[in-house]
Amino acid sequence: MFNDGFQRTIVGEKTKNGHLKNKMNNMPNIIETERLILRPLTLDDAETAYNGWTGDPDVAEYVSWLPHHSIDDAIKWLKEIEWKQDEAGNILENDNYIWGFVLKETGELFGSGGLIWEEDWQLFQVGYNIMKTHWNRGYTTEAMETILRFASRNLGLKKIAGGHAKENRASSRVIEKLGFVYDRDDITPHVDGVRFFDSREYLLDL
Questions:
Q1: Domain range for residue 195?
Q2: What is residue 190's DSSP assignment?
Q3: Which end of the chain is more exposed for a tag (fewer CB within 10 A), N or C?
Q4: Of 64, 69, 48, 200, nearest to 112 (Cα)?
């Protein structure tokens, strides 16, 4: 579809004792939509991710992260977002819940996205990034809808927010399709410490 366009979607607060009341026994971490399968990424996905989206500067044009410069960068990232499980295979509470986006029809892995805990905000945020070849097909909105349902049903989150760089009309369209309501303008720094984005922030009750 399109890049995440400096997507900063906050997906609710953790409680004092964590965002989950109980360990996520038998919680599905593979989710299906009409056209997609969302699954945890593995180290075997490093080359595909690097060549497809994490190493593409066009995908990173409006996002706050830096493009990967090698497959090693992608491997490091994949280790950071690995799902946590106990010895019995139960999914444990984590600061990241990231899925790979796979086309049902072809089995092609073409992007990733999910929930990321932001310590400074004490909130989750959602980010997503997909290959340029798959922009403008509605895949990101489709994936985001099911991730937001996961945030509500499995994590018990109640309120979310979203944002995009003002120049990025693609992310603006996603936010609007998902039903977000405009809240305020903001200025957000890039991770490089040099650039800043004029952004628009939105809210949505789950």
A1: 9-205
A2: -
A3: C
A4: 48
d(CA 65, CA 148): 22
> Residues 202, 161: contact at Cβ < 8 Å?
yes
pLDDT digit string (tens) for 126-137? 788 899 999 999
For the residues of 30-93, what is the DSSP string, one character each?
A: -EE-SSEEEEE--GGGHHHHIIIIIT-TTTTTTSSSPPPSSHHHHHHHHHHTPPPB-TT-PBPP
CATH code (residue 83): 3.40.630.30
pLDDT band at 9 (very low <50, low <70, confident <90, very high): very low
CA distance 90 to 92: 6
Establish if 27 belongs to a structural domain: yes
Q: How many domains does the chain have?
A: 1
Confidence band, pLDDT 50/70/90 cuts, at residue 13:
very low
Q: What's the confidence (pLDDT) of residue 52? A: 96
